[in-house]
Amino acid sequence: MNATFSLNPQAPDPSAHHAHGCHLLLECSGCEPDLLTDLPLLEQVLEKAASEAGATVVKTFLHEFNPHGLSGVVVIAESHIAIHTWPEHHYAAIDIFTCGMPEVAERIYEKLLAAFKPHKHQIKRLERKPPE
């Protein structure tokens, strides 16, 4: 048997999923207008950014609001990408969350910036982890 066991409850379980995460909050204004209103195009761009960044797309759900605007999430094995668009303000709010893989979150961020081409953007980087 190749398994390692420990009677010490404080010992880390080597198979346990990392609880620390990288959460990027991206505010984009002056975006490519089609990405704020075209659901199939937005789905394609989000999934492509995730895949090209090294993430594994699990499932995508996007909803189109009447009269306009899109909202949704791309569930990735590493966590998620969420988006809300306000075409009337040329604005998109995007959350990128990866568990223990900040380099993947950063690559997704770079790919989405290239696709959305905002005139202005702001990013906030948060470390997510259990309270100590």
UniProtKB/TrEMBL annotation:
PANTHER family: S-ADENOSYLMETHIONINE DECARBOXYLASE PROENZYME. Transmembrane segments: none annotated. The modification Pyruvic acid (Ser) is found at S79. Catalyzes the decarboxylation of S-adenosylmethionine to S-adenosylmethioninamine (dcAdoMet), the propylamine donor required for the synthesis of the polyamines spermine and spermidine from the diamine putrescine. Its EC number is 4.1.1.50. The lineage of its organism: Bacteria, Pseudomonadati, Verrucomicrobiota, Verrucomicrobiia, Verrucomicrobiales. Belongs to the prokaryotic AdoMetDC family. Type 1 subfamily. HAMAP family: AdoMetDC_1. It comes from the Bacteria. Binds 1 pyruvoyl group covalently per subunit. GO terms for cellular component: cytosol. GO terms for molecular function: adenosylmethionine decarboxylase activity. The keyword S-adenosyl-L-methionine applies. Its cofactor is pyruvate. It comes from Rubritalea squalenifaciens DSM 18772. The record marks E78, S79 as: Cleavage (non-hydrolytic). Is synthesized initially as an inactive proenzyme. Formation of the active enzyme involves a self-maturation process in which the active site pyruvoyl group is generated from an internal serine residue via an autocatalytic post-translational modification. Two non-identical subunits are generated from the proenzyme in this reaction, and the pyruvate is formed at the N-terminus of the alpha chain, which is derived from the carboxyl end of the proenzyme. One of its GO terms (biological process) is spermidine biosynthetic process. It catalyses: S-adenosyl-L-methionine + H(+) = S-adenosyl 3-(methylsulfanyl)propylamine + CO2. Pathway: Amine and polyamine biosynthesis; S-adenosylmethioninamine biosynthesis; S-adenosylmethioninamine from S-adenosyl-L-methionine: step 1/1. The active site is at S79, H84, C99. The keyword Cytoplasm does not apply. This is S-adenosylmethionine decarboxylase proenzyme. Keywords: Autocatalytic cleavage, Decarboxylase, Lyase, Polyamine biosynthesis, Pyruvate, S-adenosyl-L-methionine, Schiff base, Spermidine biosynthesis, Zymogen. Heterotetramer of two alpha and two beta chains arranged as a dimer of alpha/beta heterodimers.
